[in-house]
Amino acid sequence: xxxxxxxxxxxxxxxxxxxxxxxxxxxxxxxxxxxxxxxxxxxxxxxxxxxxxxxxxxxxxxxxxxxxxxxxxxxxxxxxxxxxxxxxxxxxxxxxxxxxxxxxxxxxxxxxxxxxxxxxxxxxxxxxxxxxxxxxxxxxxxxxxxxxxxxxxxxxxxxxxxxxxxxxxxxxxxxxxxxxxxx
Amino acid sequence: xxxxxxxxxxxxxxxxxxxxxxxxxxxxxxxxxxxxxxxxxxxxxxxxxxxxxxxxxxxxxxxxxxxxxxxxxxxxxxxxxxxxxxxxxxxxxxxxxxxxxxxxxxxxxxxxxxxxxxxxxxxxxxxxxxxxxxxxxxxxxxxxxxxxxxxxxxxxxxxxxxxxxxxxxxxxxxxxxxxxxxxxxxxxxxxxxxxxxxxxxxxxxxxxxxxxxxxxxxxxxxxxxxxxxxxxxxxxxxxxxxxxxxxxxxxxxxxxxxxxxxxxxxxxxxxxxxxxxxxxxxxxxxxxxxxxxxxxxxxxxxxxxxxxxxxxxxxxxxxxxxxxxxxxxxxxxxxxxxxxxxxxxxxxxxxxxxxxxxxxxxxxxxxxxxxxxxxxxxxxxxxxxxxxxxxxxxxxxxxxxxxxxxxxxxxxxxxxxxxxxxxxxxxxxxxxxxxxxxxxxxxxxxxxxxxxxxxxxxxxxxxxxxxxxxxxxxxxxxxxxxxxxxxxxxxxxxxxxxxxxxxxxxxxxxxxxxxxxxxxxxxxxxxxxxxxxxxxxxxxxxxxxxxxxxxxxxxxxx
Lengths: 183, 558
Fold this sequence. Notes:
The structure holds 2 protein chains of 2 kinds.
Chain A: H1 2-25, H2 32-40, H3 54-63, H4 75-86, E1 104-108, H5 118-122, E2 128-129, E3 137-138, E4 158-162
Antiparallel strand pairs in A: 1-4, 2-3
Chain B: H1 19-22, E1 27-28, E2 34-38, E3 48-49, E4 56-57, E5 62-65, E6 74-75, E7 80-89, E8 97-105, H2 124-133, H3 146-149, E9 160-165, H4 174-197, E10 201-207, H5 211-222, E11 229-233, H6 242-250, E12 265-269, H7 270-282, E13 288-295, E14 301-306, H8 311-317, E15 324-329, E16 336-337, E17 351-356, H9 374-378, H10 385-394, H11 397-402, H12 413-417, H13 424-483, H14 494-517, H15 527-557
Parallel strand pairs in B: 1-14, 9-10, 9-12, 10-11, 13-17
Antiparallel strand pairs in B: 2-8, 3-5, 4-7, 5-6, 7-8, 13-14, 15-16, 15-17
Helix pairs in contact in B: 4-5, 4-7, 10-13
């Protein structure tokens, strides 16, 4: 009897120690679900979802505080991917957060720019170079097209230019094949 | 020819149509009045222009320099004046324009000074750089920079060199004709490759439907001081594919995702080898190539064409006919339809195939896939085309990749045998380009995430640095005060004392400031001045007294 109790207690202690050790050793930093959601989001950092960036939105979705259809740059495709990840039904994009637009980059009219640095402070990805009273310009390769630089500009010298299709960005279209009518 | 040959799985036997164009000698196409030379003719980064509009250039002068290791330079194909550096239509299925340099030729065709390279004494790295600057890229179809490919890798040794004279695609005969007429020069190029790659075994694979080319190459090989094995391989499309000819000649398969150098061999097209010989033995950059013009034309033949010559000129030269339904760049299996014929001949242009309704009747309308797996039997890459089709069609690109979509060489065997006439290769091309675009988007979003996170980190850091700076300043002040004995408070008596000391110090400062602003001319006076002041003060007092008196008297009166 005593031996049996000791054995049981012994097993409990050993497994408890192993579990306790592994809880410390294999502790998961951060929220892995939020990471996965963040990987799907387009990283435009535009804040149209109502959160200050893609990461906070991802965390809100992971906690169930935000819906999956609040990201216009991600579009319907993004909603579908999030739905797949979370195992829920996809929804149509919530239009109160804005509509999906073609990919664009900001363009500064350098003749009009007064060098106020307000757009530089607004840019979430540091894609504007310039200094006080110096002309500013967009680093097109790093611009996410979030449009956050548009409202602060006091002289309205920034416009959004849609990315034109050129040879390196050209894609094969889904083949349209004419099927024979058989019935 | 006693070598034991292997076979690859699959393959098809489309009608060859080689005799239309391979019996004629090579004619040089005349100098066009205008050459349009694209800067993106090769795999890798496009070349960067080094001339300006209005510059006079000579034949063979570099007009755009290579940009990076996987890139090659671009040269003027003839002498003349640069009239434009702008977007021009290029031979691409999309019809989109790309950056080109336009040269108005002066008709003198005047060469720039050029000299042969002494490749035996040059360092291999310098020689590879030189080949890059001479614009050498693979002329078999992929246009991969030859200099970069002539690098045997860290082992510094590539035992087997395969010279690909397969030319398995129907209609095309430019390699065949080149081997018939320039066998010696091709093998001179092989000598340079052998020198760079450290190869001991050189195999030239030629399909057995080109007996003249095999004979010419064999004769040239017999004149060499090193061993070159010229091997006739059975005619079977696509035996001219790099991986297929490798398997036929050596029995080796290049594993998925690996390079051919990983299994100790490298494959070059005969056209590339010829261009290499011209570059090394004459110092000539790649400014012309052989182009087969065939199909629905009066005189199908091969032309030596300057890069940048408009395609319509070649078709006129070969005799255009009524009833043309389009032009393919390349052969019927892998060729690309050209959006228009103003586009220039580029390094990748091996053939212009003019189509007509009789030669290329329109395909019957497609039927649904019945999963007969005839495509799988024909696939030389040992893939499952019917599965790839299924996944590509519905956009399940992940599964398509699991089925090794990227091992597809787009040879077109599957489409050729498909009883439902489904354009299968179009689906694979679509899937590949979607996957590439997705990867590009992923890289862009990763970059944006990284930059956004760094920006947040930087803002935090700046805030912290500011706070630290303020704290450090306050600390310094406190330390200064603590050092002053005037504070009076015993050291180490705690926070309250420190605050008291601070207040006391501030009060002392205020007092000091007050005394500073008080007039200083009343101290240390001489007795005379003191006496004078006293007199004045007395007078003032008297006047004040007098001033008060009348008032009092008035009051008394009333």
